[in-house]
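> call design_seq(struct)
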């Protein structure tokens, strides 16, 4: 797809045209990744964060927030719930920490989860920027995918959204290091950020291509009232929602064989947002399996859904939602990115 076409799609408000784009993205998904949706149960296990991103509700300067960290046992219990429910994989996500106590906590956690589930559960990490040897330790312990959003591929905009000691180049370098170590590498951006243009968004898709990314998790930017960015500009939820869906479709049409998540931020803006994401070309859902008592404290943005639903309720609700649009759920399967196997020549795990 030419960049010119991407811009046309991003700019249009012709719903007939938009529907036809979603339809062809959906067909591309069926052709390259099949009609199965894979689950990654996400455990947001701690909101302690050493960084201070201007858009994020758990940034360290947000003092109005109670900080929490789940224990190993609590996290393992959530992981075992995912295994028992046939989720196939989990995502471990938290604020960013690089201290040795944290690093070895994660290392032990990965080993225990692998052992307790007989290697059944796939583990994706979403723990921010780390040194190469840390990424290696966690990979050796058994994690096989890593998500690190570039947030925006426009370096100037990145700098505008972060304090001076946060580095775009360092983040970019982490993506290369992760790939070299052997992870399946995921990245993504926020969509509809203040000062972001359609040209930036088209460049984001080209960025994913250039960096040979295996998985994408991206979603609309949503304001969080206790952040500096909330003060800067007005926020248009409907516009960001539609742009979020268009970006999924563009990523599918342009990159074809990657995994794309239909993210919670879409659902935060529209009750059927995640289903709409699947219909626009996404093939991954990340049900929140964090214990309810902690969910309120892991608010990256306003209006995060399912804050008071327990994980099993979320599950039956999700099953229905997914079946209602004619998709199947790949229970107990890893559902790894086909792109990863193509670029590495490795064979997928068979169940
Ligand atoms: N709106 C949408 N997404 C956000 N994230 C953080 N803050 C926000 C926000 N206000 C996303 C970032 C981060 C991921 C864990 O959550 O992209 O990488
Ligand atoms: Fe925690 Fe950005 S505020 S990583």
């Amino acid at each position: 797809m030419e960049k010119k076409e991407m811009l046309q799609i991003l700019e249009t408000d012709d719903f007939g045209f938009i529907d036809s784009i979603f339809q062809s993205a959906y067909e591309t998904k069926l052709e390259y990744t099949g009609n199965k949706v894979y689950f990654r149960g996400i455990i947001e296990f701690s909101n302690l964060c050493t960084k201070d991103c201007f858009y994020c509700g758990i940034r360290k300067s947000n003092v109005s927030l109670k900080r929490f960290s789940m224990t190993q046992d609590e996290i393992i219990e959530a992981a075992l719930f995912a295994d028992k429910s046939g989720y196939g994989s989990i995502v471990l996500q938290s604020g960013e920490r690089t201290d040795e106590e944290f690093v070895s906590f994660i290392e032990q956690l990965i080993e225990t989860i692998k052992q307790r589930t007989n290697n059944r559960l796939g583990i994706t990490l979403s723990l921010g920027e780390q040194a190469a040897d840390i990424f290696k330790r966690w990979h050796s312990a058994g994690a096989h995918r890593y998500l690190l959003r570039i947030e925006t591929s426009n370096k100037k905009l990145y700098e505008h959204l972060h304090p001076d000691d946060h580095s775009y180049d360092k983040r970019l370098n982490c993506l290369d290091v992760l790939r070299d170590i052997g992870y399946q590498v995921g990245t993504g951006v926020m969509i509809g950020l203040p000062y972001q243009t359609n040209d930036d968004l088209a460049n984001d898709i080209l960025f994913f291509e250039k960096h040979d990314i295996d998985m994408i998790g991206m979603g609309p930017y949503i304001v969080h009232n206790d952040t500096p960015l909330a003060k800067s500009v007005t926020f248009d939820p409907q516009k960001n929602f539609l742009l979020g869906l268009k970006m999924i479709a563009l990523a599918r049409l342009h990159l074809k064989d990657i995994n794309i998540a239909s993210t919670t931020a879409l659902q935060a803006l529209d009750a059927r947002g995640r289903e709409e994401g699947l219909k626009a070309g996404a093939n991954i859902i990340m049900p929140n399996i964090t214990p309810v008592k902690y969910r309120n404290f892991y608010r990256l943005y306003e209006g995060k859904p399912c804050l008071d639903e327990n994980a099993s309720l979320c599950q039956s609700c999700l099953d229905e939602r997914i079946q209602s649009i004619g998709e199947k759920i790949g229970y107990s399967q890893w559902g790894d990115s086909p792109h990863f196997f193509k670029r590495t020549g490795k064979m997928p795990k068979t169940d």
